[in-house]
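Consider the tokenized backbone below.
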């Protein structure tokens, strides 16, 4: 008889109300960056307010590399602006994750990233919520960071990513890379020159996660020859190379709006 895989829910918290986690709190590792004033009324670990959720996730991987659950579900303190599913359904889908897969959740579709020379924030008014925040600009281009993490490897034409960085992944998939690999990413993206509450590299980490874990599915090496024939893959995600492309010079990207409830 098959046993159900173990699962840990990693929560990147600042000041959000976590009461939505109450029924599953024993399965959660909460990392809170909001200080004493914003500490949640649940067991948690207080860590410095740097690096956005990407720092939190990498911190968890480095600190717990040898004791990871079979499935790790990475979530932010608030998810209803990115996910339309109940927590029960999210957990069910997370537990179905297979080695090599990264499970993401609707309503947000996977998006495409190809700004390897740097993100031209001013060309994306629909990202002004993030571009208007004070930030530490990256000291390398995305291409240079990719080559730091994967020396000698080709830079993809584009990669697919999950906006908001909400996903589930198996231990085997995480551990295809060494603990030292995650330490390197943590240092390059969130320490040294990038030790900041809002480093630009936090946005790059969001864009790199899926490609790091499953390049065969989330790296498109040629925008013509390497695009999937079907619109969606076996997991129901937009398939390789068919990811949503954020339009430039528009105030609202309508493809990212929550669908209207059925009448």
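A designed sequence for it:
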């Amino acid at each position: 008889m098959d046993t159900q895989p173990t699962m840990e829910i990693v929560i990147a918290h600042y000041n959000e109300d976590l009461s939505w986690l109450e029924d599953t709190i024993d399965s959660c590792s909460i990392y809170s960056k909001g200080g004493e004033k914003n500490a949640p009324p649940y067991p948690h670990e207080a860590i410095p307010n740097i690096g956005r959720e990407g720092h939190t996730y990498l911190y968890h991987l480095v600190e717990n590399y040898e004791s990871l659950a079979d499935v790790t579900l990475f979530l932010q303190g608030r998810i209803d602006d990115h996910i339309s599913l109940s927590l029960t359904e999210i957990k069910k889908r997370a537990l179905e994750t297979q080695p090599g897969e990264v499970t993401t959740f609707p309503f947000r579709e996977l998006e495409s990233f190809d700004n390897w020379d740097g993100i031209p924030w001013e060309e994306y008014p629909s990202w002004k919520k993030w571009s208007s925040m004070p930030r530490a600009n990256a000291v390398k281009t995305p291409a240079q960071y990719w080559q730091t993490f994967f020396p000698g490897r080709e830079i993809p034409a584009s990669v697919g990513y999950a906006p908001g960085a909400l996903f589930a992944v198996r231990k085997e998939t995480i551990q295809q890379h060494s603990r030292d690999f995650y330490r390197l990413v943590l240092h390059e993206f969130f320490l040294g020159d990038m030790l900041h509450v809002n480093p630009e590299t936090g946005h790059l980490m969001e864009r790199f996660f899926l490609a790091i874990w499953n390049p065969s599915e989330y790296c498109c090496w040629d925008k013509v020859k390497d695009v999937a024939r079907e619109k969606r893959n076996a997991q129901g995600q937009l398939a390789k190379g068919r990811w949503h492309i954020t339009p430039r010079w528009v105030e609202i990207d309508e493809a990212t709006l929550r669908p209207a409830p059925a009448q």
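The radius of gyration is 18 Å.
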